[in-house]
Amino acid sequence: MPLSPGRLALLLLSALIITTTQCKFPRKEAPVTIDQNKPTPAMPLQTPPGDYAAAWKTIDSLEQQGLFKSALEAVEKLGERAKKDGKQAQHIKTILFRGKYTTMLEDEGFVRAVETMEKEAATAVQPQKAVMQSMLGELYATYLSNQSWSIQQRTPIDDGEGNNLLTWSGRRIEQQAADHYLASVEPRDMLLKVPVEQFEAVTTPSKGDSLSGIPFRPTLFDFLAHRAIQHFSNERSFLNEPVYAFEMDQP
Hints:
Blueprint: H1 52-64, H2 68-85, H3 88-105, H4 109-123, H5 128-146, H6 148-152, H7 170-184, H8 188-191, E1 210-211, E2 214-215, H9 220-233
Antiparallel strand pairs: 1-2
C-alpha cells in the first residue's frame, strides 16, 4: 500500500462514500421495538475525562445495536470534549463518525455530512485543517467515482450549479477534490514539523510504511503530499479534455 502510515480513517467509514445519497442505510440489525429517535438511557456516554478509548467503545456498542441516533448524540458530545481538550485527531474522528451516522439516519445525510466537514475544515486550525482538507479531497473523489454514472446523467444548469452536491456536475466535483488536495499541502514548512504519529487516531497501519524500522513518510507533509500525488496520478475523465474538443453543432 503506497500510503504511510496508512489510509485515513475516512476510508474505513465506507458509509460516507459508498452509499447513494438518495436513500438511508438499511437497519436490519436495529431492534424493531426501539425508537431510533430517542436516546438510550441504559448506555450513557459516561467515561472518565480523557478516556477516549472507553468513549469509543460505548459508541461502538450503540452502533452494533443499531442505535444510530444515540450513537450520533454520543459522538457529538465526545466531539465537544475533544475540541475543548485540543485533541485534533480525536476531533476529526468524531466529525467522521458524525457524518457516518447522519448518512445512516437521513435521506440526504451524505450531503449534510459533507457540508458539516466543509464547515469544520473552514474554521479548523493547523495542522487539523490540512488533514481535513485532504480527507475532503478523497471524499469528493470517491463519491465521484462511485456515482459517476448517475452524475453523468445530470442536466447542466444554465444559471449555475448551486451549493447542493446533488446538482453538481462531475467537473465541479472533481475540481473541488483537486482544490482540497492542493490546499492540504500549502502550509509546507509547518507540516514538515509535525510527526505523522500525531494523527494516529485517524490513520491505520499498512504494509510498506517503513524499511528497517525507518518510516518513508515521517512527517505530516510527507503523508499528505503523497496522498495528493496519488490522487493526481490517477486518470480523470471529468477534467482531462483536449483543448480543441470536437463537437457536432451543425445539422
